[in-house]
Amino acid sequence: MGDVRPGCTKEAGVGRRRSSEPEAADRARPRRRGSPSKPVPSSSGRRAGSRTSSEGDAAPSGSGGVPRDAPGVPGAAAYGELVPVLRWLETPGIANPELAEKVRRRALGAVLGATVADAAAMGVQGVLDLSLLDKLAAERGADEQDPQGLEFVDPPRGPLWQYADGQSTIFGEQAHVLLKTLVHEGGLNCNKYAALNFAAFAAAEGGRFKDASTKGFLRAYEAGQMPPACGVDDCQASCFTRLVPLVALYAGHPRLPALVERCVRTTQDSHAAVAWGVAAAVILEGVVLGKTVTGAMKAAVSGLLNPRARGAALDGEASGAVQALGGEVVHALAVVLRLLDDKTPAPEALARLGRHSHLPMPLQTAVLLLLQTEQHMGKAHALERYREGVRGALRGGGCCASRAMFVGACLGARGGADAVPVRWRKRTRKHRECFALAERLCALRD
C-alpha cells in the first residue's frame, strides 16, 4: 500500500486541526467554506475540479480517456440531499414478508461479515513476505484440537501499524464511519458523511494509519472544500470496501449506483474509483438480494455492458464515467473468470493479479476467491464457507484486509450473521457496536 502508482498518488501532508469529540460531526465544520477548486485541464480519470492526492499534478489514472465534464456527474447540491430508503416490501423483487426477512438477514450478515473479516486481517495486513505467512499458517494450524489460520495474528506482523488485537484496519474504520452516518441520518447525505468522516479521522491518535484518500480528504475539508470537491484523485481499495453499509441499506434501490458515486466521490473524486465502486456494490447487492456470487457477478457484468438494463441509475443519473469505464472493468473481471476456468491455484492466481491496494487488484482477487469458494465449498455449511473463504483471503498476503473485507461481506450475506464465527466476533473489538448499528440500519427499512 505504500508504493505510488499512476492515478493512485500519495498525499504528502494533512492539516492538524483536531476535534475533541469524533461523534460531534456537526461541530467539526471547516473553518471556511471555499468554492470548489477550479477545473484542471487533464486527460486523467478524475472529474473536473477534483483535488489530487499529491502535492503535484495528477498522474493519469487509467480511466480510458473519460471526458472531464462527463454527462450526469452530480452537482454539489446533490451531495446535501438525503435520499430516502425503500422499505423492504417496497423494494422491487421483494414480494412478501418472508422474502423481506431473508434479505434483511443477508444485509445484516454482510455488514457484520465485513467488519469481522477486516479485524481478522489486521494482524497480517500489508505483509508481502509469503514465506513468513506460510510459517505462521503452519504454526497456527499444527494444533489438531484447535487449528487456526492467519486470522487475528497477535502481535501484528504488518509493516504499517501496530494496533491492538481485534482492532479494525483503515478499511474497517472508514466503513464504520459510513455505517454510523447512515444510521444517524436515516440514509445517505454526503455533506453529513463528510463532516463525520472529518471528525473521526482528524481526531484519531497520532499512531493511527491514514491512507492517501483519507489524508487528502482531511486536507481539503479543513481548507473549506465540501463534497465532491473534498475528494481526491485516488483509486485504491477503499472505493469499495467502505460501501458495505450503503449496499445493505439501499440494496434493490434503483438509484444505488448513483448513491455509490456520490459516496465514493466524497473522498475519492476519480472516475476509476466510481466505476470500480459501482461494480463491487452491484455484485454485493446481488448477493444480498439472493443471488449466488456467480450470478451476482454475471448480472453486474451485464449491467456494465448494457447500462440501460439497470435503468436510470446507470443511464443518466450516474456519471458517464461508469459507462465509459465499464468495458475496462468487465475486461478485468473476465481475467478472473479465465483463471477460474483454467483451474489456476489461488496462490498462482494471486501472484498474477497482484497483492496491492490499487484497483483492479483487490477486487479481482476477492472475486476470484469468492468464486473458488463457491465452486469448491458450495454445499458446505455457511459457517465453514465464511471461515475458509476469509482464511484464503489472508493467505494471499499484501493488502489482504480489503480482499478479506469484500469476501467476508459476500459470504456473510450468503449465510447471514450466523455464518460469522462467534469466536471471531468476540475477538473483534467493535463487533457489538457494529451489530447494534447494523440492526438499526436494517430497521430503517422495516
TrEMBL record:
InterPro entries per record: ADP-ribosylglycohydrolase, Ribosyl_crysJ1, Ribosyl_crysJ1_sf
Keyword Lipid metabolism tagged: no
Stretches for region Disordered: 1-73
Note on cofactor: Binds 2 magnesium ions per subunit.
Superkingdom as given in the UniProt entry: Eukaryota
Lineage start: Eukaryota, Viridiplantae, Chlorophyta, core chlorophytes, Trebouxiophyceae
Positions bound to Mg(2+): 165, 402
Pfam family, one: ADP_ribosyl_GH
Keywords assigned: Magnesium, Metal-binding
Protein name: Uncharacterized protein
Biased composition (Basic and acidic residues): 18-28
Cytoplasm found in the keyword field: no
Sequence ranges of Low complexity compositional bias: 36-56
Names of required cofactors: Mg(2+)
